[in-house]
Amino acid sequence: METFVRYTKFDGSLHWNHPATYLGADQHGTWLGVPAGATLLRDTTPKTLSYKFVMLFPRDAWWTACFNAQPTRTELYCDITTVPVITPEEVTMVDLDLDVTRWRDGTVNLLDEDEFIEHQVKYDYPPQVVKSAQDSADWLLRAVRERQSPFDGIHEEWLRLVP
């Protein structure tokens, strides 16, 4: 079953958006797959990927995760977002700029702190949004570094389902 993934910015403008295949759900959330060769749109600019990946959308957390197959340099890319709204047809959330990555060598980084600060002013993020985003980034940094579930390899079983 195809599910459309739609990230927006805080002002409602389109960010990343693309179709994905529903793979299933577990205690961590909803899993979607995207095959190698898929074209994603950033706003309206297409980007064709040479690798497959699975996405995890938790039911009640301020983040999403992309677990990438080889040959990417990033094994894991987490976006700090509003809590995803998940329906069978679509998953939507607001991208809140901060990202947590885990590189293939195990290095974990927090990215785009400058963009987060800039957008707090530009989009007038409410204080609770700022706090939730910062708390989520702090939690993700720890969980990803320590390889806590679902960042412990559980994604591999889902990745095998993507052609």
TrEMBL record:
Keywords: Hydrolase. One of its GO terms (molecular function) is hydrolase activity. SUPFAM superfamilies: FomD-like (SSF159234). Pfam families: DUF402. Residues 12-147 form the DUF402 domain. Transmembrane segments: none annotated. PANTHER family: PTHR39159, UPF0374 PROTEIN YGAC (PTHR39159:SF1). This is Protein associated with RNAse G/E. It comes from Longispora fulva.
